[in-house]
Design goal:
Number of strands of chain B: 25
Oligomer: heterodimer
Strand content of chain A: 25-35%
Number of helices of chain A: 3
Helix content of chain A: 25-40%
Number of strands of chain A: 4
Shape of chain B: rod-shaped
Order of helices and strands of chain A: EHEHEEH
Largest sheet of chain A: 4 strands, mixed
Distance between the termini of chain A: 22 Å
CATH class of chain A: Alpha Beta
CATH architecture of the largest domain in chain B: 3-Layer(aba) Sandwich
Radius of gyration of chain B: 48 Å
Number of domains of chain B: 2
Helix content of chain B: 25-40%
Structural class of chain A: alpha+beta
Distance between the termini of chain B: 170 Å
Number of domains of chain A: 1
Strand order of the largest sheet of chain B: 5-4-7-8-3-9-10-11-12
């Protein structure tokens, strides 16, 4: 089993409730299931609007899994943990 | 565009953004509503993307308004390639920061919904694109693609509603394209959100010919043309051809133009047609209508004018060959570039394309006269109403440009007596010449007559004419016992008249001779009588002389007797 580093990018638009929730949720999932194996980047489109084009971002918040391929996009505030994990193709890891 | 309401000049009109698309600005009376969204819906292949793109490009080129094109279905490269054939250079415009083409890729398979979200990303992208070049025009083509990407309809619809509000607040004129639905204007019901202006494009196949129609379903805050207008996609983009926008206020000329046939010119009070008028020549088959048209063309070219001849039945070479056989040589004019013969079958394309072709050629060639021979087989392309509306527009277009027009039309032998043309064109033209078959006993002759000529007196006779090797010649009028005669009857009539003249002459000569004879006779009589008279006179004179001499001698005798015989003279007794 190779250890792959997950590259995740979360696109938000300022400090809206959804964005804040999404970030909080994401941090939690990553710590729980991907500890030490991930890189998380938060991009605020209000600051850098031109970056929306690259990953074709329409919905906010959007979580993009860049690595491992294929690229997966998950939209929403990430409240549904199961969906998030399935979407990211992460095997749940119950850990402390 | 000008304001049409003279009644309320002070009320401001709804501000409009001119599209620059030929004909569309006229129907919408100024363009699309400024700062508001317009919905363009239609079925596949109608040209929605093209219309939207042309709106943007013309906005840049003609009105200096930068634009943003958000493409949900095609990539920027595909779009550029598609519109390159129209002369729109998208990459160049993008490089000059006048146009921005943004491809938005929506793929359902990539997306997983995990909670609450909104489409702020789209807003951010759009806002960024608009602000980066200061765009005033935006196209969203086609926003329905979002429906396939985001399954949560509630969120989607509320976001779309928010988007249009946001676009209005931004003050950009937006064009949104959508696919036509069954029974609804759009498949996803976008017309709920866009209520300022809705344009419907239609692509119909009638009798195997495609016709495109455009209709403004609604235009809030403005009057507009409400009918269906045919439109074309040509090499320069979309062209809408409205009928009702043509106003009847064009310049008129007092100059006269000859018809090319001297005898025909004389039948007109002013010896020809007005320049810029329209002439219709109708006749049944084989009545020399094409020859008349060619004679007119020859006359125009002979005087140095330019003439454009649209032939829907013969090829140019055939036309030239046939006209040469009647003494009209059109080839030199073609070579000099004064005459251009454009031939095509009417069924090769729809009526609208013919109209556009004619418009284009007239614009390029700048003729003084246009001849269309014939217009009657355009009916094979469309129904009568469509042909009539097309001809109305054509005649108005030519009149506005001061071009004299001559149309030939074949009429049905059945309706010949009604003197009506099937296209109802006769009320549109200024001059109507009819060439007819005058069927006599055992022969057919051709007669030409003027049914109407606006603005001048004209002859009411049906003049017989023949097509000789020297062209068309009108024969003199011969009046017989029952009216004007033609053909063999005319020849008979002429012979009869000659015979009558001869007979009359002979009669006169006979009378003269009779008179002479009488005179001589009388004179002889008189001579006789005179002789008699003289002899009687002589006789009488003789008698009288005799009488006198007798009397004298009697008197002398008596004297002798009275006087005694000679006595010697007594002497002094």
């Amino acid at each position: 089993m190779e250890e792959e580093t997950w590259e995740l990018r979360l696109y938000v638009a300022g400090q809206t409730p959804k964005s804040v929730t999404a970030l909080a949720n994401l941090r939690r999932y990553c710590e729980q299931h991907l500890k030490g194996r991930y890189v998380l980047e938060v991009i605020d489109l209000l600051v850098n609007p031109q970056l929306a084009e690259g990953d074709q971002i329409l919905a906010i918040p959007t979580l993009v899994r860049k690595v491992p391929e294929p690229i997966r996009k998950i939209i929403g505030d990430l409240s549904n943990e199961e969906r998030v994990l399935v979407g990211l193709d992460v095997r749940p890891h119950s850990s402390k | 565009m000008e304001e049409h309401s003279a009644a309320a000049p002070l009320l401001p009109q709804l501000p409009k953004a001119p599209t620059g698309i030929e004909g569309l600005d006229e129907i919408t009376e100024g363009g699309l509503p400024l700062g508001r969204p317009t919905l363009v819906c239609g079925s596949a292949g109608c040209g929605k993307t093209l219309l939207a793109m042309e709106f943007l490009v013309r906005g840049v080129q003609d009105f200096h308004e930068p634009g943003v094109f958000m493409a949900f279905e095609e990539t920027a490269e595909e779009l550029a390639a598609n519109v390159a054939s129209l002369g729109f250079d998208l990459p160049a415009l993008q490089a000059q920061k006048l146009l921005k083409v943004d491809h938005v890729h929506v793929d359902r398979s990539e997306i997983e919904e995990t909670g609450e979200y909104d489409l702020e990303g789209l807003f951010i992208r759009l806002g960024y694109a608009i602000d980066s070049i200061g765009a005033k025009r935006v196209v969203l083509d086609t926003i329905e693609a979002l429906f396939s990407g985001f399954p949560n309809q509630a969120v989607l619809r509320s976001e779309i509603r928010r988007l249009f509000r946001w676009l209005k607040d931004k003050g950009v004129t937006t064009v949104i394209t959508a696919e036509r639905g069954d029974g609804t204007l759009t498949r996803q019901g976008l017309e709920e959100y866009v209520s300022d202006c809705v344009i419907l494009l239609d692509n119909r196949v009638i009798d195997q010919i495609t016709t495109r129609r455009l209709r403004i379903v609604k235009y809030r805050g403005s009057t507009h043309g409400t009918n269906e207008y045919p439109y074309l996609i040509s090499e320069d983009g979309i062209a809408v051809l409205p009928v009702t926008s043509l106003q009847l206020n064009h310049e008129v000329s007092d100059q006269m133009v000859s018809s090319g046939i001297p005898g025909l010119d004389e039948m007109f009070g002013l010896r020809g047609f007005y320049k810029g008028s329209s002439v219709l020549v109708t006749g049944t088959a084989g009545t020399a209508k094409t020859t008349l048209g060619a004679a007119f063309a020859q006359e125009i070219c002979r005087r140095g004018g330019r003439c454009l001849l649209f032939a829907f039945e013969e090829s140019p070479k055939q036309l030239i060959r046939n006209m040469r056989s009647v003494g009209m040589d059109l080839a030199p004019f073609v070579e000099q570039g004064l005459l251009h013969i454009e031939a095509s079958r009417p069924t090769i394309s729809g009526l609208e394309r013919h109209l556009v072709t004619i418009h284009k050629m007239v614009g390029e060639f700048r003729p003084d006269a246009v001849i269309i021979d014939p217009i009657s087989n355009l009916i094979t392309v469309g129904n009568i109403n469509e042909v009539r509306s097309m001809l109305t527009r054509l005649i108005d277009f030519l009149k506005v440009n001061g071009i004299t027009a001559l149309f030939t039309a074949l009429i049905n032998t059945r309706t010949n007596q009604n003197e009506m043309t099937e296209e109802g064109v006769s009320s549109l033209v200024d001059v109507w010449i009819s060439v007819r078959d005058l069927e006599g006993i055992g022969e057919r002759n051709r007669g030409i007559s003027i049914l109407k000529a606006r603005g001048m007196a004209h002859s009411n006779q049906v003049r017989e004419f023949v097509v000789t090797s020297r062209g068309i010649e009108l024969l003199d009028v011969v009046i017989g016992p029952t009216g004007i005669v033609t053909g063999a009857s005319r020849l008979t009539q002429q012979l009869q008249e000659q015979a009558q003249t001869l007979a009359a002459q002979q009669e006169i000569e006979r009378r003269d001779r009779e008179l002479e004879r009488r005179r001589r006779m009388l004179e002889a009589n008189i001579a006789n009588l005179r002789t008699e008279f003289e002899s009687v006179e002589e006789e009488l004179r003789q008698i009288s002389t005799d009488e006198q001499s007798r009397q004298q001698s009697l008197t002398a005798g008596k004297q002798r007797i009275a006087t005694p015989p000679h006595l010697p003279t007594t002497s002094a007794d």
